[in-house]
Design goal:
16% strand; 55% helix; binds zinc ion; 4-stranded mixed beta sheet; globular
């Protein structure tokens, strides 16, 4: 198949009429045209939808005005669907709405003024603040796209498909659904996915921008017999999602690049940068503040769920015991800055003095 030139031939049905016409839909260099006895029409990309309900014998391409092209050309319809999806992903990475343009403009001005006003001395804390200001302007839809890129990248580099079957994953999914319901995060629909970590990732979990929590088979196996510990880890990851730590980390780590690619709609570069950054998430190098924040969130959520607040502490203990036997090549779940002992004592102090939270 010629990637630059896709042509699907079939019959065109017009709503409210009984007859049909021979017609052909072509995608040539990103432009869609419809040829029929009535002549040639130019269609916009979002005016064309592949109907998933079509059979494998006759596929249906639905046009925005209700006309339907039925075609037996399975292979080309699949190729067309693939191209349209890619185009849609590209478009969603592009900001075109006026309000967003205005916000971007204000942002550029804010960054410029901040640089001048804050000077060199205040730069490191100012960078964190600026990164967070950029993240504030990224809506949930775009965060989800960045998260999708991150997961795809993780899947092609260091994660393997899960070795566990549905029944083995089920207890974790049930716990996760309960916690998500109690957490009631606005604008986010967290989901739990399983992957095999292998020697490099081991027992690990990470929260991606957009709400995907990736847990490795190894971590589930380690905690499967301790429901509160498992709930503790899941609640901790929900804490990262609630505070948007993943996205904030990406922008903190690489503020100039991420902002530039984001402002200039350079989705390819943005994707490449996200691909590099996702390893930081896997190594759980969130930094002390984010980890302690997520621990405190986990504790509060466990208590709201009527679970033992010791869950997270037990999970940390189990992880640190299992880590002692692993090689230095492993990206430890516990590789994060605050040492485990410090995190445990922080959690214990929160349990003892809930008002400090
Ligand atoms: Zn964490």
């Amino acid at each position: 198949l010629n990637a630059e030139h896709l042509r699907c031939c079939g019959r065109l049905y017009i709503p409210g009429r009984h007859d049909s016409y021979l017609a052909a839909l072509s995608l040539i260099n990103g432009v869609i045209t419809l040829d029929s006895a009535a002549g040639q029409e130019l269609l916009s990309l979002d005016a064309v939808r592949i109907d998933p309900a079509g059979t494998s014998l006759l596929r249906r391409i639905v046009l925005q005005d209700g006309r339907i092209l039925e075609t037996p050309d399975n292979e080309r319809v699949d190729a067309l669907a693939h191209r349209l999806n890619r185009q849609a992903l590209r478009q969603s990475l592009r900001l075109s709405h006026w309000a967003e343009r205005w916000r971007r403009l204000t942002l550029v001005a804010t960054i410029a003024i901040s640089f001048i006003a804050l000077g060199i001395v205040a730069l490191p804390p100012a960078m964190g603040w600026m990164a967070d200001s950029v993240v504030e302007m990224i809506g949930p839809d775009r965060e989800a796209v960045i998260g999708q890129i991150a997961l795809t990248e993780a899947d092609t580099t260091f994660l393997q498909p899960s070795w566990l079957d549905q029944a083995q994953q089920e207890p974790a999914h049930r716990l996760f659904t309960d916690l998500v319901q109690i957490a009631a995060l606005p604008d986010t629909h967290p989901r739990l996915v399983f992957r095999h970590g292998g020697p490099k990732i081991g027992a690990n979990a990470m929260a991606l921008p957009g709400g995907s929590v990736v847990m490795t088979d190894e971590l589930l196996t380690l905690l499967i017999h301790d429901e509160d510990a498992l709930a503790g880890v899941l609640a901790h990851e929900l804490g990262h999602i609630d505070r948007r730590h993943g996205l904030r980390l990406f922008f903190r780590t690489s503020l100039p690049d991420m902002t530039e690619y984001w402002l200039n709609h350079n989705d390819r570069q943005l994707g490449l940068r996200v691909a590099e950054l996702v390893e930081i998430l896997a190594a759980n190098a969130h930094g002390q503040r984010f980890e302690l924040e997520a621990d405190a969130y986990s504790l509060a959520l466990l208590q709201r769920a009527g679970r033992s607040p010791d869950g997270m502490i037990r999970a940390l203990n189990k992880l640190s015991m299992s880590d002692q036997g692993s090689s230095s090549q492993t990206m430890h779940y516990l590789q994060s800055h605050p040492p485990t002992a410090e995190r445990i004592s922080h959690l214990q102090s929160l349990v003892a003095h809930p008002r400090d939270r």
